[in-house]
Structures are given as structure tokens and as C-alpha cells.
Amino acid sequence: MDILALIPARSGSKGIPHKNIRLFDGKPLLAHSIDHALRSQRITRVIISTDSEEYAEIARSYGAEAPFLRPTSISQDQSTDLEVFQHALQWLRLHEGYEPEVVVQLRPTYPIRDVTDIDNVVDILLQRPEVDAVRSVTPAPETPFKMWFMAEDNRLTPVVNSDLKDAYNMPRQALPATYLQNACIDATRPSVIFEQQSMTGHNIVGYVMEHNYDIDTELQLQAAQAAVAIDSADTHQFIAAAQRLRDKLAQGQDVIICCDIDGIIANLVPNGNYALATPRKEMISVINHLYDCGVRIVLYTARGSATGIDWDTVTRDQMHTWGVCFHELHFGKPAAEYYIDDKLISFEQLSQLATLLN
């Protein structure tokens, strides 16, 4: 099955000149998206769409194809994704007779990705033929139900028209959850682009992520660079801590890992309908490996803590169906915007821990 990653990288950025080739963590920005695509288990071809031969050569040096240069007419500030993708897919169809089942947009301005998320997004399209497109989103920092349009005479009209009476006067906690597209991963079918003249079509599924590292400004670039620097420093300390855990296991001592479910073992779902959750297979594989190494796996979830709904049976059935190995399952974790913990580790570090405990 042909899954194309298309990386749009024009040369005329105004906010940050030549943004797509600015160095980030030692490599041009576009090189990170190329690397993500090449490490994906689903992507079968990686192509850059650029108007610059310099950018094309850089992309080729990092393993992408650059079989054409994008016309200047669709490389402007106001040029749309649809124009760029129509051009690329038409060129490939005309010159190579090539048309992928799925095309994935990986913007070069998003240099920090979990490759597993790419595969999960593609899997949604492959498993759900009724879906036109999948778009990565993150919880919106502000609710649009309290946003307004202002006319010339300063009269206000709500941005969101809904069945909720005077939604803008309601407590934020009582309003529906909203999500912001974060520009990390967009996937669609070429048929949607050609037949519906759209990047998304009508049936769009959201893939919920916790972070937004899209870079449009110098400040966002600095913030993303700081996040990478912190991760790098933490890694050295983590390796030493992991060795101590390995020694404890070798001595027959208990090693306990407490793991959340949603966003870790299960993909996040909108509106807390956990019955619709799907498994994160790579994460489950890591958890099961740690279980086999003798680590005690404790699952601790906030499911139902805010709503009072009993998700025990659904959750246990999911863990059984998905093949998750664990010793304990606890409900009652408080629902919160953020959790702060001095023993927090990332998925990448957990994978590294599994390797060290081998």
C-alpha cells in the first residue's frame, strides 16, 4: 500500500526568513520532518514540494525525493495547501502514473514529533473507509464560545452559534470541549483532493495530541529549541536512574511503574467517550516488555472522576482485548488540566528503559 508523505517547503517565508531551512537541534527544520517520515512504519515514499533548488538539494541529502520544483505561482504567502497538493499529485500521476492510497502532510515547521502518531493517523484512514481526512488537534487554550466578532460600530456577535442559550455567559467548565489544529500531521485521500477540491473533505476525524510545537515566530522557535535542550539534559540523568532500576530487579527488589491510560495506552478521544478509545500499539508493546522483565505495572486513570460515570467494565475489557499486561488497575485519579510529578518520564524514555532492562 502506497502512503506518501509530502513535505511543503517554500523558500519565501517572511516571518522568519528561510524558516524551513533554519537550523534546529543541529539540522535544517525540514530535515526533521523528513526523518520522521523515513522512520514511520506506514510511510512508503517521502517527497518535498519546494520552489527552491537549494531546498531540494538539502532535502535529498537527508533522504527525501525532490522530483519537481513547485511553480512560483503557488509558492506565495497566500498560496493554499490544496494548490500545492493538487500540483504534486497531478505531477506524480502524469509523469510516473503514481497515485498513493493516502497522502500525509508533514509540515517542516513542526520539528518535534512522535513517529507513532504518524502511523496512528494513517491507520485511522486505512481502517475507516468512510473517513475523508484525519487532522491532528490539541485542546484549545481558550474556548471560542466566549469569542466575538466586532462590527464597525463596535456591536458584538458571537463567533460560535450554537443551541446553547447565551453560551458566552455560561461557566467555562459547562461548555463543550474544543480543539485547535496544531499543524503536526494531516492525512487525506487523493480522491478527496481531486474530487472534492478539498484537503479534508466532509468527514474529518481529529487525532488528539497534548503538545503544539508549530513554529511561525522566532519566539516559538526558541521555545521549541528550549524543549529539546531540556529533554537532552534529562536523558543523561534518566539513563543513570534506569541502571539503578535494573540493579534492583537483578536483586529481586520490587520495581513499580505507574502508568496513565488515556494518551499513553489509549489514544485520546473527544468529550471523554472512552468507549471509542483505540489502542496505542507501540506503547502497549513497551508496557508488556517491562511486565515480562519483572516490573510491576500499575494503571491509574482519571476516567469518570469528573463525570461520575463508571468506566471499570469498559476499561478492563479494553485492556484485555488490547492485550495489555498489568498487575493493578486503579480509578479515582483526579481530572486536571496538568499533572506535575518529579518521577515523570516520556514515552521515548520509557522505551529506552525497556531496552536497558532487557
Walk me through the topology.
Elements: E1 3-8, E2 23-24, E3 27-28, H1 29-39, E4 45-49, H2 53-61, H3 81-96, E5 102-105, H4 115-127, E6 133-139, E7 148-150, E8 156-158, E9 179-188, H5 190-195, E10 204-208, H6 218-250, E11 256-259, H7 281-292, E12 296-301, H8 312-322, E13 328-331, H9 347-356
Parallel strand pairs: 1-4, 1-5, 6-10, 11-12, 12-13
Antiparallel strand pairs: 2-3, 5-9, 6-9, 7-8
Distance between the termini: 34 Å
Overall helicity: 25-40%
The parts where pLDDT drops under 50 for at least 5 residues are none
Which superfamily, in CATH terms, is the homologous superfamily of the largest domain? Spore Coat Polysaccharide Biosynthesis Protein SpsA, Chain A
- Strand and helix order: EEEHEHHEHEEEEHEHEHEHEH
Q: Which descriptor suits the 3D outline? A: globular
